[in-house]
TrEMBL record, chain A:
Highest taxon listed in the record's lineage: Eukaryota
PANTHER family: BOLA-LIKE PROTEIN 2, BOLA-LIKE PROTEIN-RELATED
Pfam families noted in UniProt: BolA
Protein name: BolA-like protein 2
UniProt family annotation: Belongs to the BolA/IbaG family.
A GO CC term attached to the entry: cytosol
A single MF term (Gene Ontology): 2 iron, 2 sulfur cluster binding
GO biological process assignments: intracellular iron ion homeostasis; protein maturation
InterPro entries documented for this protein: BOL2 (IPR045115), BolA (IPR002634), BolA-like_sf (IPR036065)
Organism name: Gryllus longicercus
TrEMBL record, chain B:
Superkingdom as given in the UniProt entry: Eukaryota
Keywords (A to Z) from UniProt: 2Fe-2S, Iron, Iron-sulfur, Metal-binding, Redox-active center
Name of this protein: Glutaredoxin-related protein 5, mitochondrial
Cited InterPro entries: Glutaredoxin, GRX_PICOT-like, Monothiol_GRX-rel, Thioredoxin-like_sf
Length: 85, 150
């Protein structure tokens, strides 16, 4: 089973109630390597490790076949701050 | 010279085989992994060895730790399938590389990179008594003008 950018993006948007998600397939469409940027208020007050664990748990089934998954997790505040810089 | 080389070679191969033996023999149980992760202040589970990482993410971790001048234990999960799965179960983390500081799971490549960029890595290393080489470089730079004042 391989996954598309769209599939991963929609799942993260839904499960994390994310306000912004960017997913990039770096494997030329074979679905093995992804980069993701996730902005969600669910990350508020959580250290980096907990945020990544949350994302991993949502994609636990998918990560069995996704070989490499790189993620950046931000709260809406952090996201706004970065964009205003 | 020959004798010296031979002794060195002998030692290296003995140490290597001992290392392999340790991994293969004991790395499956939780207790064994606990021993591995607490054996040094910084412990890395990676693909390949620091001199020759076999994955871009493992390589990134090696480069970051090198910049900070950290001595660490490394374990090659490609050499040991049971360790590869065992460490994932141990830390409930799906991917390799994995970095431990003071026996505690810190994260993989993404997290270490962000800690490096934010300066948190210097702080975490300081907590366990490791002075980052980057910090020392920064200190010696700022110390120079101060000396001139005298």
């Amino acid at each position: 089973m391989s996954y598309t950018e769209e599939y991963v993006k929609n799942k993260l948007l839904k499960e994390l109630e994310a306000t912004h998600v960017e997913v990039e397939d770096l494997s030329d469409g074979c679905g093995a390597k992804f980069n993701a940027l996730i902005v969600s208020s669910k990350f508020e007050g959580k250290p980096l490790l907990q945020r990544h664990r949350l994302v991993n748990s949502i994609l636990s089934e998918e990560l069995k076949s996704i070989h490499a998954f790189s993620q950046k997790t931000m709260t809406p505040k952090e996201w706004d701050k970065q964009n205003s810089q | 010279m020959n004798i010296v080389t031979r002794i060195l070679n002998n030692n290296t191969s003995r140490r290597l085989s001992l290392g392999l033996y340790l991994c293969r023999g004991f790395a499956t149980s939780k207790e064994a992994i606990e021993k591995l992760v607490t054996h040094n202040k910084v412990v890395v589970f990676m693909k390949g060895v620091p001199q020759e990482p076999r994955c871009g993410f493992s390589n990134a971790v090696v480069q970051i730790l090198r910049m900070h001048g950290v001595n660490y234990d490394s374990h090659d999960v490609l050499k040991d399938e049971e360790l590869r799965q065992g460490i994932k179960d141990f830390s409930s983390w799906p991917t390799i590389p994995q970095v431990f500081i003071n026996g505690e799971f810190v994260g993989g490549c993404d997290i270490l990179l962000q800690m490096h960029q934010s300066g948190d890595l210097i702080e975490e290393l300081k907590k366990v008594g490791i002075k980052s080489a980057l910090l020392e470089a920064a200190l010696s730079e700022s110390a120079e003008p101060a000396e001139k004042k005298k």
